[in-house]
Amino acid sequence: MAARRPQRRPVVELYERVVEAIRQGDYPPGSTLPSEPDLAADLGVSRPALREALLLLQEDGVITVRRGVGRTVNGRPARRGFERLQPIEGLFSADAAKIRPLARVVEEPTDLVMQHLPVPASCEIWFWESVVDIDGVPSGLVEEWSAHDEGLAAVDPGLPAALAEAEAQPSTMLHVVSELDPYLPLSGSSAMSATALGRRRGEVLDRSPDTPVVLITQVVSVERTPLMAAKYVLPSGAPSIPVRQSR
Protein backbone atom coordinates (compact mmCIF):
# COMPACT_ATOMS: atom_id res chain seq x y z
CA MET A 1 0.00 0.00 0.00
CA ALA A 2 1.38 3.43 -0.93
CA ALA A 3 2.50 5.62 1.93
CA ARG A 4 0.12 8.35 3.00
CA ARG A 5 1.19 11.90 2.33
CA PRO A 6 0.69 14.36 5.17
CA GLN A 7 -2.11 16.80 4.41
CA ARG A 8 -2.93 20.28 5.58
CA ARG A 9 -6.45 21.64 5.33
CA PRO A 10 -6.72 25.23 4.00
CA VAL A 11 -7.92 26.59 7.34
CA VAL A 12 -4.92 24.95 9.05
CA GLU A 13 -2.51 26.52 6.55
CA LEU A 14 -4.04 29.95 7.15
CA TYR A 15 -3.97 29.38 10.91
CA GLU A 16 -0.27 28.57 10.69
CA ARG A 17 0.46 31.67 8.59
CA VAL A 18 -1.00 33.90 11.29
CA VAL A 19 0.86 32.00 14.02
CA GLU A 20 4.12 32.34 12.08
CA ALA A 21 3.53 36.10 11.70
CA ILE A 22 3.06 36.29 15.48
CA ARG A 23 6.22 34.25 16.04
CA GLN A 24 8.21 36.50 13.71
CA GLY A 25 7.11 39.59 15.62
CA ASP A 26 4.76 41.06 13.03
CA TYR A 27 2.02 40.89 15.69
CA PRO A 28 3.82 40.77 19.08
CA PRO A 29 2.09 39.69 22.33
CA GLY A 30 -0.24 42.39 23.57
CA SER A 31 -0.72 43.93 20.14
CA THR A 32 -4.03 44.11 18.31
CA LEU A 33 -4.40 42.36 14.97
CA PRO A 34 -5.36 44.51 11.96
CA SER A 35 -9.04 44.76 11.15
CA GLU A 36 -10.53 41.76 9.39
CA PRO A 37 -10.60 43.45 5.93
CA ASP A 38 -7.01 44.66 6.29
CA LEU A 39 -5.71 41.32 7.55
CA ALA A 40 -7.50 39.45 4.76
CA ALA A 41 -5.93 41.80 2.21
CA ASP A 42 -2.47 41.39 3.78
CA LEU A 43 -2.74 37.58 3.63
CA GLY A 44 -4.43 37.49 0.21
CA VAL A 45 -7.38 35.42 1.42
CA SER A 46 -11.14 35.81 1.58
CA ARG A 47 -12.75 37.18 4.72
CA PRO A 48 -14.85 34.00 5.34
CA ALA A 49 -11.68 31.87 5.22
CA LEU A 50 -9.85 34.28 7.53
CA ARG A 51 -12.79 34.39 9.95
CA GLU A 52 -12.67 30.58 10.26
CA ALA A 53 -8.95 30.63 11.06
CA LEU A 54 -9.42 33.46 13.57
CA LEU A 55 -12.08 31.43 15.36
CA LEU A 56 -9.61 28.55 15.73
CA LEU A 57 -6.92 30.93 16.98
CA GLN A 58 -9.35 32.27 19.57
CA GLU A 59 -10.32 28.73 20.65
CA ASP A 60 -6.68 27.77 21.09
CA GLY A 61 -5.92 30.81 23.22
CA VAL A 62 -3.59 32.41 20.69
CA ILE A 63 -5.76 35.54 20.51
CA THR A 64 -8.44 37.09 22.70
CA VAL A 65 -11.44 39.01 21.37
CA ARG A 66 -12.53 42.02 23.41
CA ARG A 67 -15.51 44.19 22.59
CA GLY A 68 -14.38 47.64 21.57
CA VAL A 69 -10.74 46.55 21.37
CA GLY A 70 -10.56 43.84 18.73
CA ARG A 71 -8.42 40.72 18.52
CA THR A 72 -5.43 40.88 20.87
CA VAL A 73 -2.43 38.56 20.66
CA ASN A 74 -1.93 36.64 23.91
CA GLY A 75 1.46 36.32 25.57
CA ARG A 76 0.97 32.59 26.18
CA PRO A 77 -1.67 29.98 25.28
CA ALA A 78 -4.72 29.74 27.52
CA ARG A 79 -4.56 26.93 30.07
CA ARG A 80 -6.37 23.77 29.07
CA GLY A 81 -7.93 21.73 31.40
CA PHE A 82 -13.48 17.09 31.07
CA GLU A 83 -14.66 16.27 34.39
CA ARG A 84 -14.87 12.56 33.70
CA LEU A 85 -12.73 10.85 31.08
CA GLN A 86 -14.78 8.74 28.70
CA PRO A 87 -15.61 8.77 24.96
CA ILE A 88 -18.33 11.22 24.04
CA GLU A 89 -20.51 8.43 22.66
CA GLY A 90 -20.69 7.08 26.20
CA LEU A 91 -22.15 10.34 27.51
CA PHE A 92 -25.35 9.98 25.50
CA SER A 93 -27.90 7.19 25.24
CA ALA A 94 -26.28 4.34 23.30
CA ASP A 95 -29.40 3.91 21.18
CA ALA A 96 -29.64 7.61 20.29
CA ALA A 97 -26.01 8.60 19.67
CA LYS A 98 -24.16 7.48 16.55
CA ILE A 99 -20.64 8.48 15.50
CA ARG A 100 -20.26 9.30 11.79
CA PRO A 101 -16.65 9.44 10.52
CA LEU A 102 -15.75 12.46 8.37
CA ALA A 103 -11.94 12.43 8.20
CA ARG A 104 -9.33 9.84 9.09
CA VAL A 105 -6.04 11.24 7.79
CA VAL A 106 -2.36 11.59 8.56
CA GLU A 107 -1.19 15.21 8.59
CA GLU A 108 1.48 17.52 9.95
CA PRO A 109 0.94 18.85 13.49
CA THR A 110 -0.30 22.37 14.09
CA ASP A 111 1.00 24.61 16.85
CA LEU A 112 -2.03 23.57 18.95
CA VAL A 113 -1.06 19.92 18.67
CA MET A 114 2.57 20.60 19.53
CA GLN A 115 1.48 22.59 22.59
CA HIS A 116 -0.11 19.44 24.00
CA LEU A 117 1.59 16.44 22.40
CA PRO A 118 5.34 15.69 22.60
CA VAL A 119 5.81 15.51 18.84
CA PRO A 120 8.29 17.32 16.55
CA ALA A 121 7.08 19.66 13.82
CA SER A 122 8.41 17.32 11.11
CA CYS A 123 6.48 14.26 12.26
CA GLU A 124 3.14 12.83 11.13
CA ILE A 125 0.08 12.66 13.36
CA TRP A 126 -3.39 11.13 13.14
CA PHE A 127 -6.34 13.49 12.70
CA TRP A 128 -9.86 12.12 13.14
CA GLU A 129 -13.00 14.19 12.66
CA SER A 130 -16.44 12.77 13.49
CA VAL A 131 -20.04 13.96 13.68
CA VAL A 132 -22.20 12.94 16.65
CA ASP A 133 -25.70 12.23 15.34
CA ILE A 134 -28.47 12.11 17.96
CA ASP A 135 -31.60 10.37 16.65
CA GLY A 136 -30.31 11.11 13.15
CA VAL A 137 -29.71 14.83 13.77
CA PRO A 138 -26.12 16.23 13.61
CA SER A 139 -25.63 17.41 17.20
CA GLY A 140 -21.90 17.68 17.76
CA LEU A 141 -18.46 17.55 16.18
CA VAL A 142 -15.39 15.72 17.51
CA GLU A 143 -11.86 16.56 16.33
CA GLU A 144 -9.03 14.36 17.65
CA TRP A 145 -5.26 14.28 17.16
CA SER A 146 -2.71 11.72 18.32
CA ALA A 147 0.88 10.73 17.77
CA HIS A 148 1.37 8.49 14.74
CA ASP A 149 2.53 4.87 14.74
CA GLU A 150 5.82 5.08 16.67
CA GLY A 151 4.39 7.26 19.41
CA LEU A 152 1.31 5.04 19.73
CA ALA A 153 3.37 1.84 19.81
CA ALA A 154 5.46 3.24 22.65
CA VAL A 155 2.26 3.37 24.74
CA ASP A 156 0.79 0.07 23.56
CA PRO A 157 2.10 -2.03 20.62
CA GLY A 158 -1.47 -2.75 19.55
CA LEU A 159 -2.54 0.89 19.18
CA PRO A 160 -1.32 1.58 15.60
CA ALA A 161 -3.15 -1.45 14.22
CA ALA A 162 -6.24 -0.74 16.32
CA LEU A 163 -6.57 2.81 14.96
CA ALA A 164 -5.84 1.70 11.38
CA GLU A 165 -8.52 -0.99 11.57
CA ALA A 166 -11.03 1.43 13.09
CA GLU A 167 -10.67 4.16 10.43
CA ALA A 168 -14.06 3.43 8.85
CA GLN A 169 -15.78 2.39 12.08
CA PRO A 170 -18.39 4.54 13.87
CA SER A 171 -16.13 5.29 16.83
CA THR A 172 -14.09 8.16 18.21
CA MET A 173 -10.36 7.78 18.68
CA LEU A 174 -10.74 7.87 22.46
CA HIS A 175 -13.25 5.00 22.27
CA VAL A 176 -10.78 2.89 20.29
CA VAL A 177 -7.95 3.60 22.72
CA SER A 178 -10.15 2.89 25.76
CA GLU A 179 -11.49 -0.36 24.33
CA LEU A 180 -8.07 -1.71 23.37
CA ASP A 181 -6.87 -1.84 26.96
CA PRO A 182 -9.41 -1.03 29.71
CA TYR A 183 -6.53 -0.95 32.23
CA LEU A 184 -4.45 1.61 30.35
CA PRO A 185 -3.81 4.38 32.91
CA LEU A 186 -5.51 7.20 31.02
CA SER A 187 -6.10 10.61 32.55
CA GLY A 188 -7.44 13.79 31.03
CA SER A 189 -7.68 17.51 31.56
CA SER A 190 -10.28 19.67 29.88
CA ALA A 191 -11.40 23.27 29.52
CA MET A 192 -14.77 24.62 28.44
CA SER A 193 -15.39 27.86 26.60
CA ALA A 194 -18.08 29.52 24.50
CA THR A 195 -17.59 30.50 20.87
CA ALA A 196 -19.38 30.57 17.49
CA LEU A 197 -19.72 27.56 15.21
CA GLY A 198 -18.02 29.04 12.15
CA ARG A 199 -18.61 28.48 8.45
CA ARG A 200 -17.01 25.07 7.86
CA ARG A 201 -18.33 23.48 11.03
CA GLY A 202 -21.70 25.06 10.31
CA GLU A 203 -21.80 23.33 6.93
CA VAL A 204 -20.96 20.00 8.55
CA LEU A 205 -23.65 20.34 11.22
CA ASP A 206 -26.16 22.11 8.95
CA ARG A 207 -26.30 25.14 11.26
CA SER A 208 -25.72 28.86 10.91
CA PRO A 209 -22.06 29.93 11.30
CA ASP A 210 -23.21 32.25 14.10
CA THR A 211 -24.70 29.42 16.18
CA PRO A 212 -23.35 29.59 19.77
CA VAL A 213 -21.40 26.51 20.82
CA VAL A 214 -19.77 25.06 23.90
CA LEU A 215 -16.22 24.06 23.05
CA ILE A 216 -14.46 21.46 25.18
CA THR A 217 -10.71 21.18 24.64
CA GLN A 218 -9.20 17.99 26.08
CA VAL A 219 -5.76 16.46 26.52
CA VAL A 220 -5.55 12.72 27.29
CA SER A 221 -2.38 11.37 28.87
CA VAL A 222 -0.90 8.01 29.83
CA GLU A 223 1.05 8.24 33.09
CA ARG A 224 1.53 12.01 32.56
CA THR A 225 2.68 11.60 28.95
CA PRO A 226 0.21 13.33 26.57
CA LEU A 227 -1.22 10.88 24.03
CA MET A 228 -4.18 12.69 22.41
CA ALA A 229 -5.64 16.18 22.01
CA ALA A 230 -9.31 16.71 21.17
CA LYS A 231 -11.99 19.30 20.62
CA TYR A 232 -15.70 18.63 21.25
CA VAL A 233 -18.00 21.17 19.57
CA LEU A 234 -21.54 21.18 20.99
CA PRO A 235 -23.92 23.73 19.38
CA SER A 236 -26.92 25.21 21.13
CA GLY A 237 -29.83 22.79 21.02
CA ALA A 238 -27.59 19.73 21.41
CA PRO A 239 -28.63 17.25 24.13
CA SER A 240 -27.16 17.98 27.54
CA ILE A 241 -24.21 16.02 28.94
CA PRO A 242 -24.35 15.11 32.64
CA VAL A 243 -21.55 16.48 34.81
CA ARG A 244 -21.22 15.04 38.31
CA GLN A 245 -20.09 17.31 41.12
CA SER A 246 -19.37 16.80 44.78
CA ARG A 247 -17.91 18.71 47.72
> How does the helix and strand content classify structurally?
alpha+beta
Question: Major sheet: size, sense and barrel closure?
Answer: 6 strands, antiparallel
**Alpha-carbon distance between the termini?**
54 Å
Q: State the total count of DSSP E strands.
A: 8
Return the average pLDDT rounded to an integer: 83
Number of helices: 8
Keywords: DNA-binding, Transcription, Transcription regulation
InterPro entries: Bact_HTH_transcr_reg, Chorismate_lyase_/UTRA_dom_sf, Tscrpt_reg_HTH_GntR, WH-like_DNA-bd_sf, WH_DNA-bd_sf
Pfam family, one: GntR
Domain HTH gntR-type: 8-76
Folded structure, characterized:
This protein has a six-stranded antiparallel β-sheet with strand order 3-4-5-8-7-6, with helices on both faces. The chain is of the alpha+beta class. It starts with 9 loop residues before the first helix and ends in a 12-residue tail after the last strand. It has helices at 10-23, 36-43, 47-59, 111-116, 149-155, 159-165, 173-180, 199-205, and strands at residues 63-66, 70-73, 97-107, 125-134, 137-147, 186-196, 212-222, 225-235. The protein is globular, with a radius of gyration of 18 Å. InterPro entries: Bact_HTH_transcr_reg, Chorismate_lyase_/UTRA_dom_sf, Tscrpt_reg_HTH_GntR, WH-like_DNA-bd_sf, WH_DNA-bd_sf. Residues 8-76 form the HTH gntR-type domain. Keywords: DNA-binding, Transcription, Transcription regulation.
